[in-house]
Design brief:
Layout (H helix, E strand, L loop, with lengths): L2 E4 L2 E4 L15 E4 L4 E3 L7 E6 L6 H14 L5 E7 L3 H11 L5 E4 L5 H4 L16 E5 L5 E6 L9 H6 L3
Parallel strand pairs: 5-6, 6-7
Antiparallel strand pairs: 1-2, 3-4, 3-7, 5-8, 8-9
Length: about 160
């Protein structure tokens, strides 16, 4: 289990992010239109997983906006923004914000959080997903991971994008 912080207090996750160089766990999420968002359907593409607690918080919303902006310039890359939010909340946010370059997906009925080791086990956010980023190359191998040290801060966008090269 990994350690992070929420408002300065240490908290743990359900496991560890997959190791760089390892095969990424497969995932099966729910899109904003209730369709499946599956890793198998993204085979051959580079994937950035922007993982966060809830789109209804400022930092999480900012991360979706930031990746949405940056995704427009990325070739053969899908950015999947993943939280435990219901698909309806994600759809409402994306519509209100004009989010069109990323895929918002809910892990509310999947094992995604446990498979990627990002379920928060402590803090008032227990049960939600820890803010993290996983970059997966075209072959399905993990090329970059970040578990942010403080859940209330943004991820390192530049390092995630740089890992695509």
């Amino acid at each position: 289990m990994a350690q992070t912080h929420f408002q300065g207090e240490e908290t743990s996750t359900s496991g560890n992010l997959p190791e760089v160089g390892s095969q990424a766990p497969e995932f099966d999420l729910v899109g904003v239109d209730l369709s499946a968002v599956r890793s198998a359907d993204l085979a051959g593409r580079r994937i950035i997983l922007n993982i966060f607690p809830s789109v209804d918080t400022g930092v999480c919303a900012t991360s979706v906006r930031q990746f949405n902006e940056r995704a427009a310039a990325l070739d053969n890359t899908t950015v999947v923004c993943v939280s435990q939010d219901l698909p309806f909340a994600l759809a409402r946010f994306c519509a209100a914000e004009g989010i069109e370059n990323v895929t918002a997906a809910s892990a509310f009925r999947s094992t995604f959080g446990k498979d990627f080791g990002v379920v928060l086990e402590g803090s008032p956010l227990a049960g939600l997903l820890a803010r993290s980023v996983v970059v997966i190359d075209e072959t399905g191998k993990v090329s970059y991971t970040q578990l942010v040290d403080e859940i209330t801060t943004e991820p390192d966008y530049d390092s995630a994008i740089a890992a695509l090269n």
